[in-house]
Amino acid sequence: MNWSSITQFEAIGVWAVLGTAILGLLYAAFLTRQILREDTGTEAMRDISNRIREGAVAYLNKQLRTIIIFVAILMFALFGSAALITELPKYVTDAGFDGMAIALGRAGAFLMGSLFSLAVGQLGMRMAVLANVRMAAGAQRSFGEALRIGYRTGTISGMLTDGLGLLGGTLIFIMYGQAAPEVLLGFGFGGTLIALFMRVGGGIYTKAADVGADLVGKVEKDLPEDDPRNAAVIADLVGDNVGDCAGMAADIFESYEVTIVAAMILGIAIATAGPVFEFKWILFPLLVRAIGVISSIISTYSVRTTENEKDAFKAIDRGFRLAAIISIGGFWILALTYMNDWRVAAATTAGVLLAVLTNTLTEYFTGTDKAPVQEIKQSTSGGPATTILSGLYVGMESAVWAILAVSAAIFASVLIFQGQSITMILYGVALCGIGQLTLTGNNISMDAFGPIADNANGIGEMCKMDPKARQIMADLDAVGNTTKAVTKGIAIASAVIAAVSLFGAFGDTVIHTLHSLKAAVPKDFIINIGEPQVFIGLLIGGALPFLFSSMTIRAVGRSANLIVDEVRRQFRIPGLMEGKAQPDYGKAVAICTDAAQRELLPVGALAVLVPIIVGFLLHEAALGGFLAGVILSGQLMAVFMANAGGAWDNAKKTIEDEPRDLAKNTGKGSERHKASVVGDTVGDPLKDTSGPALNPMIKVINMVSILIVPLVVQVSHQTNRSGWFSPEALPWLAVVVISVVIVGWALWSSRRGAFKFES
């Protein structure tokens, strides 16, 4: 990096950001040491916890072997695509870098982003499966102890996400300076790709186990949630960790990186527009993120309850709002003293407010004491059909309010930067995303708390712990269900904000490429949907989230089928129902692990290759329309599925908390309860597989599009001049044909029969 071109304050700021990233990692290490010193309970509790940990580690190890080849192939493909770009933007050459340096940097950054994303998911989940038994043991002492252990373990994942995300971005900035955005594209793509695999694989695993366990255990055999006679119960508890801890951490990590990438690309455009290059537009997002790490450290450590106030969600939400207040104060001080521009503080503040609003909306539509869940609870009196209908309309309505909240945040940027260029307005949108994910440490803490509490509750039920501790864990499990739903809402909103920011970066990249090719350059990149090719791109983009969701739901159904057959088989083992024989938990774990890995490559191929087909076949404007379609329908689908599933789940929990009285149709085992279990089973793959997986899918598609768009522009100019069958265009036609064949294979692979049960 050319340090002579930045001020002394900026140089100090860069090193301060790097130090803050390391501080976040040290805080994670401090919490790890603190949690590992906690009591691990009885031998029986440790035995169950060890089974969960072994299953989770086996899954992660097998997943790593599955995706490492895909990562290696894409790393070389990324290097090749960057090396093929004939003309680099002026701000890159001005920084002293040639095409080979950018290609090597991008490939290396992709590998680093992949490894960091894997580390966030793997280390956070490994801590979660060590903490579940400690939280269960803490519940025997007090409500506050159990909350502290569960939440601080979740904070470890949060600080790993903060620390590694900020560390990677800062190191690349130090090495590449104003050319950093070109390399950061690789870093963001690496994190995004791993998040997609971990979300999809973890989601399929957890819901195959959950659906299989519930359909046979609860509905057919009328057994409790975590009855030790159910062969799928350990697989279900494992699934909570691989789906939520590992999947969500990787998901938020890549949103964290993608918003930085978008802000820096747009910041470059602003910095180069004036007579003097100003690093502040590129550095400001990193400084904002550093403020977020500090606020998360302070606020997460403050989360606790007393014996007089046993409201876990209130304590967690209070920590979240404390982090928001600290962050907003830091934004304004930084904006007024360094940027000398109140507008950037206002834009980042809008992002924090969007996170708070998203929290509030999601809590309303999924909270156990709120009207939507109570309405679903009442609808169970009419049976499974009315239960499903009520969940559907709750999810649909919630999607509308969520997209209005995101629209309001984007419109806030329009108002704040009124009269400025489109690039400046989109920079404000990117800062909104930066602000929203400033509280990443808190968001991940809230999410990871859910599966840890769920596992602790399962351990308590399987070990038949005392009623007081069981009630504490049941209460914290219900809170964890809400916090998981809340963080899913934030993850979805962040995906849309990040995608809109990347959309702006996409247009800016097109203009830079046109400049490099010395072609006619428009003032702004405009997408005219009146053009047939653009409209085709829009239609394909709008349809893709539906196809993607179809593939993931079918995968859950296919995998759940195997678990249902296995659980039914084991229930026929002599003496199992009487408690005289032990089920083979490992068999169900192995089935889920194998089934989840088989489904990864088809959905990964769909997300990576469809934008390549659209871009090279229909060109850059159609690719822009395609991105717009993906963002819109993906947001609506993701929120609908996540909130409908969360509301069904919590409606079931409220009925399970009722006194059991079959004559009055209340409590576990009642007809209302059976109807709620059906609704929950329908919602499981929606809220924990398809809905959350749409977040990384949207961003993978956006990242692939930005990475390929310089080549797309080059190819479109070639084909416009000499046609598709010219010698220089034929290799790209071959790329399109091969991509179409692979996507065809992915669809064929997904359509293998899903529901074929043994009699």
Write the SSE topology.
Blueprint: H1 8-36, H2 43-83, H3 90-94, H4 99-139, H5 143-176, H6 180-220, H7 233-271, H8 280-301, H9 312-339, H10 342-366, H11 371-379, H12 384-416, H13 422-436, H14 440-463, H15 467-516, H16 532-571, H17 585-598, H18 600-656, H19 671-722, H20 730-750
Helix pairs in contact: 1-5, 1-8, 2-4, 2-6, 2-7, 2-14, 2-17, 4-5, 4-6, 4-7, 4-14, 5-6, 5-7, 5-8, 5-14, 6-7, 6-16, 6-17, 6-18, 6-19, 7-8, 7-13, 7-14, 7-15, 7-17, 7-19, 8-9, 8-14, 9-10, 10-12, 10-13, 10-15, 11-12, 11-18, 12-13, 12-15, 12-18, 12-19, 13-15, 14-15, ...
Overview of the structural elements:
- It is a single chain.
- With 759 residues, the protein is mainly α.
- It is built from 20 helices and no strands.
- The model has no long low-confidence stretch (mean pLDDT 83).
